[in-house]
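Thread: quick sanity check before group meeting

JM: Hey all, I'm pulling together slides for Thursday and realized we never actually wrote out the predicted structure for the chain we discussed last week. Dropping the sequence here so it's in one place. If anyone has concerns about the input, flag it before I start.
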Amino acid sequence: MEAPDWWRDAVVYQIYPVSFKDTTGNGKGDLNGITSKLPYLKDLGVEVVWLSPVYASPMVDMGYDISNYREIHPDFGTMEDWERMTKEAHRIGLKVVMDLVVNHTSDQHEWFQDAKDGGSKKDWYIWRGKNKEGKEPNNWGAIFGGSCWEWNDKLKEYYLHVFDVSQPDLNWENPAVRDAVWDVMRFWLDKGCDGFRMDVINCISKTPGFPDAPVADPQSMYQYGLIHRFNGPKVADYLLEMHDKVLQYYPNAFTVGEAPGVKSAEQALPLVQNGVPLQMLFHFEHMYIDHQPGKTCFNYKPWKLTELKDVLGKFMEFNEANGGWDSLYLENHDQPRIISRWANDGKYRDASAKMLAIFHATGRGTLFIYQGQEIGMANPAAWTFDELRDLEEIQYYKAIEASNGDTKDALKQIQRIGRDNSRTPMQWSADTNAGFTSGTPWIKVNQDYEEWNVEAEQASSDISVLKFWKSLLTIRKDHNGLVRGAFQMIDYENQSVYAYTRRNATEQYLVVCSFSEEEVKWVCPVNRGNLLLGNYPSQEIEEDDTLTLRPYEGRLYYLPAMQHL
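JM (edit): ok, ran it. Output follows.
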């Protein structure tokens, strides 16, 4: 019988369906493509497959603008294809998790089509009149640029859209909206869905009264940032109602909520304590360490390793002490490839991919792998404007262009941090278009696919990144202390080495990861024991307490005797 907290031990694999595997030749991935690759995922060592949205959608924001929650977008196939995929996943022991996008809908959804004409569902969305100056109700800026408010001339009111103008926010204050969401959840759970990743779920409650946000950048017409738009006072209430009305009746359902702007484990705890109302959250604090405060992701800030330790270490230690649980992720459909971001995707690409794998898979929490991460996929070398597909990137570029800014620098920033970097097709082989499609891909294929692909890494006589990930996931499954054990940071002040221990009543492990391109001498404060896994072919086990760590070296040790640090 499945344990009620099975999700703590799970390895989750995120699929971005349009870029995973195409079986029709139209250049877009589909559900049958996912079905064809389920054995690959099972062999890799994952237990849960999470699909980014496959619902009916105009695809303005790549499916995060849903026009019908109960239909499949034709590009992905049919409902019968989804059912066949889910049945096959269950047959081989995999669970299927869907994306739940219920902060907003598409403006093409029948609910909003009724609302914008003043129909019975008008109060399903958020409307406000002009302020005293005859302008927008406040200065809130939309995530994708411009104001959060869009004027409707028929109703003589603005509607709120925290994201794009095509994504009007639902009014969660209205019980009818919540009931409609509960119905959507039951629909999918009853069809065999095993749970949900909940998109921007802490956005469903806004600050009462809709006050202006503080203006950090006087040059900006509208204030960027998350204040007042996220983390309103009723987030926990709404999610507890979700638990009471839906989730408690599906006790094995998987739940993770995306929560940008949740800045600490203390703030997150009411949403995840002891697995209620949600099991875990995706916070973004480790993703923000290279962002300038108060500005968009395209404004780079140099960062230090201690900042990363301060975020991840504190989350893990606090949650352990207070009944919380973490999600472990370094990549997803909204973030660039982590090798290009935090390490070296050139000379030390192989070492970087493996070190980051050790770092990623040995933290305290449920492990999430994003498609292609397991083969060391990196950002493309460059983008032209015509190659861009992401709404956020395109609007950023156009804003720079309109202000006579440096568009070359805009493309440079997009290459560094843009969302299209993680959305290039999955690299299955060295065949045309990386074996992703026989047609023209909807987005360009990364130029390095002939070397970095699944087929080549499976056939390699060396320990490829893919083989390394398989070994790491096997070790993780066989050593429960690496999953549920206590987490303790060591040598916090070190700016090159990220080191910590994991331990339970019978096992203790030491993880040592160098984030430096230079050789590092590191004094190890514990008897490091036996090497379980390392990312260099030949390991030099020093005789004294000083380790010589090569560029981006990662080591996982099993400590034979319990030690008190």
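AS: nice. The mean pLDDT is 95. The chain has 15 helices and 20 strands.
JM: adding both to the slides.
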